[in-house]
Design a protein that fits this description.
Beta-Lactamase, Alpha-Beta Plaits, about 300 residues, about 25% strand, 8 helices, 2 domains, 11 strands, four-stranded antiparallel beta sheet, five-stranded mixed beta sheet, elongated
Length: about 300
């Protein structure tokens, strides 16, 4: 009898342990599902692509610890990178209703196991609709950043991008210079030869400038005959070399129908220093450009921060 009672107690204890274990698993599953719903709700409020992916990266850490992510934007060579890229990684092709939404790559210190892959894949459905919205917002924003005539970045793009490029240069402890280039006496050319020929010159100059830029340079057309170039990873000496290369590629004879025109350009350059704002950098490069014009045009002038008032 006592043996039977002991056996019953043992069975009851085992059942209680199993029940407790199952209860813990159910509680963990509920907590995980609730956390997933919270993350999805946070993602749904992000319409900026960078902020959306940053939120996915930060909040995804509560499911799986990973070191970084990279996102390849569809139909583009552009990508977004957050965190550290690792040799161990796996990629997920994203799509929503037949629309290609690019490729997401998760980077980890060690090769992920099946559970980790499943947990990451479980986060992806909540990313898709916000991602589609963010890509649409990005396309609309970039369209407003383009100069309709040349297809270059415009003044609005410069106002949005310059501060960001300066911040990145400071974080990476790299130099940055700004170049402003302006066509000499171009208003007289436009008045004398009309809109069609002056437009053809602008297009030819835009092509020449673009062809002579480096992969680290970003060019903008900010006015009818003015261009601005952000020279990343470029100090004073290199900036002057780039400025002279761009200025001289403009300085040539342009022929349209029976009209031949000599067109030169002037350039102003300055280098970013500690404490600079985007406004200060733009103002200093414009002053350098004015100095080049006053010195006779068809030349480059450099203005250091220490020389400006």
């Amino acid at each position: 009898m006592s043996r039977s009672s002991d056996n019953d107690n043992s069975q009851n204890g085992g059942a209680a342990a199993i029940g407790s274990s199952l209860g813990d698993l159910a509680s963990q599953a509920f907590d995980k599902q609730y956390r997933l719903l919270q993350i999805n709700e946070m993602l749904s409020r992000k319409t900026d692509l960078d902020l959306l992916l940053e939120c996915f990266y930060i909040e995804g850490q509560s499911f799986v610890k990973f070191d970084g992510l990279s996102y390849q934007i569809p139909d583009s060579s552009a990508y977004v990178q957050i965190g550290q890229l690792r040799h161990s990684h796996f990629s997920i092709d994203l799509g929503n209703g037949g629309r290609d939404l690019g490729t997401l790559t998760i980077h980890m210190k060690t090769a992920p196991d099946n559970r980790e892959i499943r947990d990451i894949e479980g986060l992806v459905p909540g990313l898709l609709y916000p991602l589609e919205t963010a890509l649409s917002h990005r396309a609309s924003k970039f369209a407003s950043w383009l100069d309709d005539f040349t297809g270059m970045n415009n003044a609005l793009a410069l106002s949005e991008m310059l501060s960001r490029e300066m911040l990145l240069s400071r974080e990476e402890e790299e130099p940055l210079s700004l170049l402003m280039i302006d066509l000499d006496h171009f208003s007289k050319t436009a008045e004398s030869h009309g809109e069609q020929i002056s437009g053809e010159i602008i297009l030819a100059v835009a092509d020449a400038l673009t062809a002579n830029l480096r992969s680290t340079d970003v060019i903008f057309r900010t006015d009818f005959d003015r261009f601005v170039v952000i020279l990343g990873s470029t100090d004073f000496d290199d900036a002057n070399v780039v400025a002279e290369r761009l200025r001289t590629c403009v300085d040539r004879c342009y022929s349209y129908q029976n009209v031949q025109l000599m067109q030169s350009a002037s350039a102003g350059v300055t280098e970013m220093v500690d404490g600079d704002t985007a406004e200060a950098l733009l103002s200093r490069s414009e002053t350098a450009l004015v100095n080049a014009k006053r010195a006779g045009r068809n030349r480059t002038r450099y203005l250091a921060a220490s020389e400006s008032s």
